[in-house]
TrEMBL record:
<keyword id="KW-0949">S-adenosyl-L-methionine</keyword>
<dbReference type="GO" id="GO:0008173">
    <property type="term" value="F:RNA methyltransferase activity"/>
</dbReference>
<dbReference type="InterPro" id="IPR001678">
    <property type="entry name" value="MeTrfase_RsmB-F_NOP2_dom"/>
</dbReference>
<dbReference type="Pfam" id="PF01189">
    <property type="entry name" value="Methyltr_RsmB-F"/>
</dbReference>
<feature type="active site" description="Nucleophile">
    <location>
        <position position="363"/>
    </location>
</feature>
<keyword id="KW-0489">Methyltransferase</keyword>
<dbReference type="InterPro" id="IPR035926">
    <property type="entry name" value="NusB-like_sf"/>
</dbReference>
<keyword id="KW-0808">Transferase</keyword>
<dbReference type="InterPro" id="IPR049560">
    <property type="entry name" value="MeTrfase_RsmB-F_NOP2_cat"/>
</dbReference>
<dbReference type="InterPro" id="IPR029063">
    <property type="entry name" value="SAM-dependent_MTases_sf"/>
</dbReference>
<feature type="binding site">
    <location>
        <begin position="249"/>
        <end position="255"/>
    </location>
    <ligand>
        <name>S-adenosyl-L-methionine</name>
    </ligand>
</feature>
<dbReference type="InterPro" id="IPR023267">
    <property type="entry name" value="RCMT"/>
</dbReference>
<dbReference type="GO" id="GO:0001510">
    <property type="term" value="P:RNA methylation"/>
</dbReference>
<dbReference type="GO" id="GO:0006355">
    <property type="term" value="P:regulation of DNA-templated transcription"/>
</dbReference>
<dbReference type="GO" id="GO:0003723">
    <property type="term" value="F:RNA binding"/>
</dbReference>
<comment type="similarity">
    <text>Belongs to the class I-like SAM-binding methyltransferase superfamily. RsmB/NOP family.</text>
</comment>
<keyword id="KW-0694">RNA-binding</keyword>
Length: 430
């Protein structure tokens, strides 16, 4: 006799799984100081691709808006609840402020609070606070100031760029950045089918692009994702067809692809075998060619016409795309990075013939990783020159006094911002 089948348990509401995963990401970043990239594999592994994307989006948005969320919540809290509860409230506040349906947000987050041992006792608080802020969250949000940079970074940056510029940078950090693409053939038919705005520097900018792999031209390698600022160092180097160029810190390979697409004979070197795996995937997808070497830029030997040195740095220029960075870092290790960059510049020069050229760049907002690094290199190497770029894509606001280009996220704010970067074209004495 067939056994009566058990009734299936009621399905959990669709929003629970991605919201729980988003909270796991928030606790890894805010509570444990890990980056989203480090935390994502474990936190998202059980989810389907759509929920994975939603969880990542929710966590990223909450980190971007943490300061505003705390301000919105503060009047409703007489005491500071434990971090796990605070993160539930923050996620709720951010979702409500961005127009999510309040019953879904509140019900799911109350349910999630009820499932956790540490959060269960405060389930009632979660319910009461979220219901209280729900009606006004969207309207109140507009007047709240954006998330501030953490103290370890804000102090030096205010000193370098001034309070007003830092406020503008923080405003840009508070907005969802557009998607920038580098096209293999700029201005070709693919640009028209992708739509978007062609930037003066040649990148194509899309707003609300959706899933990148679903865009036309992805499968055939017609473009790669690369912030508009990150696309400039290779343009500054201006490789010619057939030139031997080494990309010294190459992975995951955005600049290698640009150099190869320009027809240069490219060597892509990086210390990280794992990151080189992504570079190889990018070469395979685009059908572009480069010699790939797992190695140390401090000891690699050879002779090249030109060098691109995109040195490891604090990455503080990329906060608008990586809002986890201020939480996952505390400023430790920056002086070691600065010393490493100087050693890399010195060694990179040995790879060039007299008169050879090199672009040094970092995605940092800290002058010690940019302008100061180049000034000190000039002092160490008599005859080394900075060549100020004459290209028509250079925005005059980017020119810095020693001849390099300084890009701040607040530049092009009306277009959606741009990552912070520093770059300089150096010429070895002849
Ligand atoms: C800013 S990222 C490079 C991004 C890359 N140029 C691109 O456009 O996709 C810096 C890279 O330096 C690499 N790196 C760090 N120390 C290195 C070393 N001693 N030699 C070579 N690569 C190194 C890291 O693994 C990392 O991939």
């Amino acid at each position: 006799m067939a056994r009566p089948s058990r009734p299936a348990p009621p399905a959990a509401p669709a929003g629970i799984a991605p919201r729980r995963a988003a909270l796991a990401l928030l606790s890894a970043v805010i509570g444990e100081g890990r980056t989203l990239a480090e935390a994502m594999p474990a936190a998202l592994s059980a989810l389907d691709p759509a929920d994975r994307a939603r969880a990542q989006r929710l966590a990223t948005q909450t980190l971007r808006d943490l300061g505003r969320a705390d301000r919105l919540l503060a009047p409703s809290l007489t005491r500071m609840p434990p971090l796990a509860v605070r993160n539930i409230l923050r996620l709720g506040a951010v979702e409500l402020a961005h127009g999510a349906a309040s019953h879904g947000v509140v019900n799911d987050l109350v349910e999630i609070a009820g499932r956790g041992k540490r959060t269960r006792p405060l389930k009632g608080l979660v319910n009461a606070v979220l219901r209280k802020i729900a009606p006004e969250a969207e309207a109140a949000w507009i007047d709240l100031p954006p998330q501030r940079l953490p103290k370890w970074l804000r102090g030096p940056l205010v000193e370098a760029w001034g309070r007003a510029e830092i406020a503008r940078i923080e405003a840009v950090h508070g907005a969802v950045p557009p998607l920038d693409l580098t096209l293999r053939e700029p201005g070709g038919p693919l640009a028209a089918s992708l739509g978007g705005e062609e930037l003066p520097t040649g990148s194509l900018r899309l707003v609300d692009a959706g899933q990148v792999s679903a865009l036309p031209g992805y499968g055939t390698g017609g473009f790669w994702v690369q912030d508009a600022a990150a696309a400039l160092p290779a343009r500054l180097l201006a490789p010619r067809a057939g030139e031997r160029v080494i990309d010294l810190c190459a992975a995951p390979g955005g600049k290698t692809l640009q150099l190869a697409a320009a027809g240069a004979r490219v060597t892509a070197l990086d210390l990280s075998e794992a990151r080189l795996g992504r570079l190889r995937e990018n070469l395979a997808r685009t059908g572009l060619e480069a010699e790939v070497i797992a190695g140390d830029a401090l000891i690699h030997e050879g002779r090249y016409d030109a060098v691109l040195l995109d040195a490891p740095c604090s990455a503080t220029g990329t906060i608008r795309r990586h809002p986890d960075l201020p939480f996952a870092r505390d400023g430790a290790g920056i002086s070691e990075l600065i010393a490493l960059q100087a050693r890399m510049i010195d060694h990179a020069l040995t790879l060039l013939p007299p008169g050879g050229r090199m672009v040094f760049c970092t995605c940092s907002l800290i002058p010690d990783e940019g302008e100061v690094q180049v000034e000190e290199a000039l002092a160490r190497h008599p005859g080394l020159e900075v060549v100020p770029p004459g290209a028509d894509w250079v925005d005059p606001a980017w020119r810095s006094s020693e001849g390099g280009l300084r890009i701040l996220p607040s530049h092009w704010a009306d277009r959606g911002g741009i990552d912070g970067f520093y770059m300089a074209l150096l010429r070895k004495p002849g």
